[in-house]
Amino acid sequence: xxxxxxxxxxxxxxxxxxxxxxxxxGLLLPDLNQSLEMSNFxxxxxxxxxxxxxxxxxxxxxxITTREGPRRMIIAAxxxxxxxxxxxxxxxxxxxxxxxxLLAGGSTGLVSPPYGAAISLWIQRDExxxxxxxxxxxTSFGIALTGAGAIxxxxxxxxxxxxxxxxxxxxxIWNYRIIPxxxxxxxxxxxxxxxxxxxxxxxxxxxxxxxxxxxxxAAFWSFSRTFIQVAGDxxxxxxxxxxxxxxxxxxxxxxxxSLVEKGGLPFSYKLGSIAIASASMILSVAPEHLFMxxxxxxxxxxxxxxxxxxxxxxxxxxxxxxxSLGIGVPFLLLAVGQVIGSAxxxxxxxxxxxxxxxxxxxxxxxxxxxxxxxxxKEATGLPVNLEQNVTESTK
Length: 395
Description:
Elements: H1 3-36, H2 40-68, H3 71-90, H4 94-122, H5 128-136, H6 138-153, H7 157-178, H8 203-231, H9 236-250, H10 256-263, H11 265-285, H12 290-318, H13 323-352, H14 354-368
Helix pairs in contact: 1-2, 1-3, 1-4, 1-5, 1-6, 1-7, 1-8, 2-4, 2-13, 3-4, 3-7, 4-5, 6-9, 8-11, 8-12, 8-13, 8-14, 9-12, 10-11, 11-12, 11-14, 12-13, 13-14
């Protein structure tokens, strides 16, 4: 298949599922809270449903994609995102909002495994790494798009979600027409890494690091925009640009593979953990200053995408005999941590306030830096062709 014929609809599907259906919630949350009269605790619990549904659907999608190929799960992801966004647009209460959140969040888990399979099947081997890199960028483009939408549509969150739903429907139809059907049931396997580690030695630090990093990032995704709104005198467009900065700088996180290759996995992990923790710390110190708020947003956006790439490399090193586990385990645990972190964040903010809560989450991120993988003497870089069959899972 021609490179652009698969990659372009892939980028847009990732943009609408991750950017519009999942991560736009934090940007629109202040208006949602006001309209639906939600407390911080309730909004934190609702936000955690994005990650909870992701945990279940990524497992389901992996199994079905392996058995039947990628088409069914890609279409299911688009349908789930469309239905979730429509429910969120018309919701009369918190309960229907929660159902919409479950469907919207579930779309990201459904869409993560099949694009890697699609690239394995239909993109030439020497172009697969580039294809994954471009599809990965869909999340950052989607986040930036939500910021632009907020500038044009704020505070009309219902209209915003409706427009997002219509855009998702268009992207769904595009993917429906592009993704081929396959007659057989291919066993789509991800390539193993080339590290010489055996078994699951070192899996516990990987699991703990993924879980703790998930906890530490949850508050920023859900409450950072609300934090700066209540702390400073910002216009609506300045608040929206805050989100755009997260998305634009997220593109820089795509260079994680190069840094791991040059600096080694332990150094890259520690750097990313400290950077993402610093983003919450910086925001807690001076949320009312525009430069500091944007600095925090840029640091968070770039380090989040960067860290997910690092976790992918680490996972493949640990689960050398099963690369699918190497990819699935850290991102599943990252989502589990975000479930815990989102639910806890609403309660902490309601009890402590925003600044102490963000200091706490920054401290959790700093603690995660202590769980860095051990330095290996025989290999410090990326395995050969590591990115070639890795899907967009780094979200």
